[in-house]
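We now fix the convention by which a protein and its fold are recorded. The integers have meaning only within a learned vocabulary of local backbone shapes. A record is reproduced here so that you can trace the correspondence yourselves:
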Amino acid sequence: MARFAAGKAPFLRKADEKGYGTNVIMRDFLIAMSPVVLFAWYKNGIQVFIDGNISFLEMLYPLFFIIMGAVFSTLMEGLFFFITDKEHRGLKEINQKLSNSFAAIPGIILALLLPLYTPIWVLLFAAFVATIIGKMIFGGFGHNIFNPALLGYAIVGFTLMSVVNNAGGLFNASEVLVDSYAGATPLGVLSSTKDIDYNVLVKPYGDLSNFFIGTIPGALGETSALAILIGGIYLVIRKIIKWYTPVIYVGSVFVLSWVIGIIAGEAGIWFPLYSVLSGGVMFAAVFMITEPVTTPTNSLGKIFFALFMAVLTVLFRYVGNLPEGVGTSLIFLNIFALPIDKFTAVIRTKKLTKPGGLYLGILTGLVIVLALYAIIKAGGMYTAYIPFLGWVM
């Protein structure tokens, strides 16, 4: 029974408070991302400048890249409004629509998901996919099925990654800046070696503290778990996100990776920590699987969504040919956000029937089966000590 079911109306809601609403939520979201942006600038610009490897203008390039992501997505959305709404084409009217749809945010997230050496024209194309295809054709803010920034990132990853890896050109990062930034990512090394070895996966980058702080190769906004954690704590304190969603996701990835390491003959906790601190797990946990439009809204739905995300991340990352796995998992689960929400909904009226235990049983069974498959399959790939695992390979 709901906590207020026995009380008498009217009820006071947080949403009814003065000054509270979507604008406040988006403002807090931007504040939470600021530590990530500042660290990305420090790591990829300021520190390189301090070392004497780049000029002052080159030091500003990481900020320029992120700002251009915001500008591109805003321009795309403004152009969409101009073309589709013939009766309200005034600059003031379009600006009002843009302010209500928070057009810049997908572009900022998109820039943080991409490597610094991504050509500017590729960022422009990704912003087009994210804004027009991922957001506006579904009806705009609040109606999109897929996370817009993630969709733009995924399309670039599947179609233009060879172009991204060949840096250079007008307005792109200089070779010196790229050389100081680029390198084989930890997950890329694991994907190529198929060997769970601390000396191969962690030691070339220092130790796990370097992974936590973020001084390792990777996308602009994904390397620093510390900066992401600061933003996440702020969002929890502000009650913008539920604490248990990122905790369940990160914790499940940790446990599954730990079991895989044990099966592969490496029982230490360094491998599950490596798995959590590498790639986009932390960034997705705080800024993406907590997004209210493309993920379930009720508490039980959020829990199942986080569990599925963890299992699919491990499955795609260690079994499939996708070194990252996080983006693919989230885009796939965006399709099922509404069914998960429906099957886990809590009904507070006698006129409607609460979904039965069958639905919850099916969801639980799917999580368990996928988790076991991921563990056995991945464990079999990374070990030569357990011959009976060969039947699933």
About this structure: The mean pLDDT is 83. The chain is about 60% helix and 0% strand. Residues 185-216+241-393 form one domain. Residues 22-50 form the longest helix (29 residues).
